[in-house]
Specification:
80% of the residues lie in helices and 0% in strands. By secondary structure, it is an all-alpha fold. It has a single domain, classed as MetI-like (MetI-like fold, Orthogonal Bundle), CATH 1.10.3720.10. The radius of gyration is 21 Å and the shape is flat.
């Protein structure tokens, strides 16, 4: 490894890492938080079997899961201006990532809620609880524990998916690396360095996932939540 290459990597690492802290991570966290809200709403609508709304939710999930994320980014960022709707790149990325991940998380939450035994709902009704009280106090805590690992995996996957935002001019880690590589022509080394930074971020989230699972296990008495 030449001295020039070493200097380039040493100078580029903090620049790329900083873009990860100020753009990639906020983009991931904000998008995923909105995705969870969308997912919970969609899951509850499906579980409650609200006619009309359920069909809309199923259609939304079908469209989002059946089309590539990159196409969705292009459709919103480059397509909506044809209708007179112009969104800045960062809010556009948040919107697309939230809608995309929300569709997948909705199915995760729906399956988790349906995994809770139905006799617990009947027991809740027997003690005078309303439907929303049963969901909030009995069903959702158990469902969340079941859904926590796959939801955490979705969050980690989103960290990597944010690299696609470079295609709509969001200055995140990958675009920063692209610009430095275009100036220095050290593509292999710089993209490898960027991959390592992504790996660092994903490793941190993985550790947080494990800590979260251990805490949930302790709260549930080793695997079972008490209503």
């Amino acid at each position: 490894m030449t001295e020039r290459l070493v200097n380039i990597l040493l100078e580029s690492f903090p620049k790329i890492f900083l873009q990860g802290l100020i753009v990639t991570i906020p983009l991931t966290v904000i998008s995923f938080a909105l995705a969870l809200i969308i997912a919970m709403a969609c899951a509850m609508i499906q579980i409650a079997n609200i006619k009309g709304l359920k069909q809309i939710v199923r259609f939304y999930i079908w469209i989002v899961r059946g089309t590539p994320l990159l196409v969705q980014l292009y459709l919103i960022y480059f397509g909506l201006p044809d209708l007179g709707i112009v969104l800045p790149s960062f809010p556009c990325a948040i919107l697309v990532f939230a809608l995309n991940e929300g569709a997948y998380c909705a199915e995760t939450m729906r399956a988790a809620i349906e995994s809770v035994p139905k006799d617990q709902l009947e027991a809740g009704y027997c003690v005078g609880m309303s439907y929303m009280q049963i969901m909030r106090r009995i069903v959702l805590p158990q469902a969340f524990r079941t859904a926590f690992p796959p939801l955490s995996n979705s969050l980690i996957s989103m960290v990597k998916d944010t690299s696609l935002a470079a295609n709509i001019t969001v200055m995140e880690m990958f675009m920063q690396a692209q610009r430095i590589a275009g100036r220095t022509y050290e593509h292999l080394a710089l993209y490898a360095e960027t991959a390592i930074i992504y790996l660092i971020f994903c490793t941190v989230f993985t550790r947080l996932q494990r800590l979260g699972e251990k805490k949930l296990n302790r709260l549930s008495g080793g695997g079972r939540l008490n209503a």
